[in-house]
Structure formats: structure tokens, C-alpha cells
Design a protein that fits this description.
16 strands, 382 residues, D-amino Acid Aminotransferase, Chain A, domain 1, globular, five-stranded antiparallel beta sheet
Amino acid sequence: MKNRNSHLLGFQDIDKTKLPIVGGKGANLGELSKIDGIHVPDGFCITTEAFKRIFEETSSINELLNQLSLLKVEDRDKIRALSTEIRRAIEGIAIPQDILEEIEEYLTQFTENESFAIRSSATAEDLPTASFAGQQDTYLNVIGKKSILQHISKCWASLFTERAVIYRLQNNFDHRQVQLAVVVQKMVFPQAAGILFTADPITSNRKVVSIDAGFGLGEAMVSGLVNADSYQVRDGKVIEKKISTKKLAIYAVKEGGTKEEEIEPELQNTQVLADAQMLELERIGRKIEARFGSPQDIEWCLADDIVYIVQSRPITTLYPIPEAPNQGYAEDSTIPHVYLSVGHQQMMTDAMKPLGWSCWLLMTPPATRIAGGRLFVDVTQC
């Protein structure tokens, strides 16, 4: 369905240029839905325009934000009290009638008892330099129009949880500059779910795909409730498996919401994914990585032998790789480059400031590269 204005956009109407109005999660879901062969559960975004309306029409919230802007990370008690008051105020505001009608109209595409995941999508989220992952709330298996509307308000309010406020303070983000969209996405009821990294998050090896997998919904893993299986795949081969004991899983409840369930003893130490499914995840991960142009942290779930992708964001913790022209190698060469750190040779281990390394580059040979504020020399051909 094509939407008439900016309060609501279906995934197919969204791409990365819409990030300011649908947030990082929403923009990435729009891009994912356009990749051939990638299954993304259908849904829509309520844009930041709706969020702005709430603030513009409620003077009391702006007064509370003025107080919040004066606080520092150390003011934990005041942050807790103010953030609670702001959330209560937001949840008490009625959704404007025109926005309400748009949501109701879009929901007519689905059956009355359809289940949805209601997820927050902030404009400062899933960015290449700061993920802000998990700072706002997600609600799973939400059923019925009334409940959907309640949880949309809860998502708006979750921009001001204590942890989200402190995280913004630590990363120097202005509370007023961060806007929130809400993702309403058709629920998938998986047998297994997990996280897929298209680069090893521990070693930073870009050639290795790292997969975490558990039974049921991925929330059990994200919340630290269970240890997940861990698999590593490289170039179409499973190179490592770590099978964990998995005693609990989170599953959706028929009436709505989720619950913890004990896993049968005979399944607790079984492998969650078959080898063929690991290889399929590697293929999917590389396809998504190519679309976004950088290593990705991908949320997936497996239902009825179909892999669904419910989110992808850049991995922000990898040490950057110096840009390296082939320098005489064939264009399709797979020969790795070898670098020596100039700073560590000189016992200068801290990162240099831009003025320092830019001046240094004027006096050094062409083989010198910059990565992470440090100088490296390409010695591949030496």
C-alpha cells in the first residue's frame, strides 16, 4: 500500500535516504526488503513526524527535557526520576486522530488476530559509528489494535529509559536531536533464532562468518538468559562449532506476549542448526554485507526451514582496515596485505590526531596508510 503522507511508510517505500524519518532500524529494514532472495517479514514504520507531533503539542514534556539537558552521567538519581516522569507523560498522550486512522487503515491488510513485533527505531541507532542497539524497547507477539496502539506509545516513551538517557550522555548526543520512529512488523514464530556476524567480532577476521544460535525466539540470547551455540563458517565450510547446554528458551504465547520454557533434557545439548543451515546463513550474510558495503551484525530467525532476517546493522567494534590499492597485483588478487604499525615501532601507541597524521603523510612514502588514527606501512611486497 502506498501511503499518502509521511506519518506511515511500508517497508517497500523505505530506503537509506529515509533514515531521518524512520530511524536506523526502519531504514535498514527497508533496504533489506529490496534484496532478492532475502525474506523480511512484512511491516511498516510510523515516522518521526508522528513523534514530533507528540512533543510539539505537549508543553509539559518540553519543560522536563529542559531539566534533563542540564544533567550529567553522574546524576543517576535525578536521571531516573526525570526519565520516569517523561515516559509516564508520553504514554498518557492520546495518538492524534489522523495518525490513528492511518495505522488502522494499514492494519486492514492483515487478519484481525495477526501478531506483530513492535520495535523502536531511533535516528541515532544502527549507525556506522554508534549502534545504540538495545537502548530502546521491543515488544513481541502483540495482538489486537488496542494493544498495538498501546505498545506504539510505549516505544515512543522508551527513548527516555534510564539506560537510553545515560547512553546518549556518554556519547554526547543531544536528547532533543534524537527522534524515534516505530516499526510494526509481522511476527515470525521460529524454531531457532540468533545473531549472524559477517566478520568475527572477537578477532576482526573479515573472512570468517560467526553465528550464534538458540532455540525459540532470539530474546533469550540477547537478554543473556541462555548460552547459545556458536559456529564459524569460512568460504562455504564449517570450521568450528561450540555446542552449549541450552536449558531455557523463550516462545510466543497464543494469547499474546512471550514466556520462558524449559527445553527437554534430550535437546539441551543438541546442535541448534544443521551444517547446511549454517552455510545458508553465510550466503545470506555475504549478500546483505554486499548491499550495505560493510561487515554486518544481523538478526535472523528460522521458521519452517525459511531464514527470515529481522534486522541488520553495521558492526561498529571492528578495527578499521587500511585502504589498499592492488599496487601491481591483478585486480582480482586475493593476496593479503601485510602492515607494520609505525607508531608501535616508535613506542608511540596512542592514536594520532588528524593534524599530526596528515602532516606526517606529506613526508612519508606512498606505502604509508592510515587506520584508526594510526600510521601503517604496507610491506606486502618487501
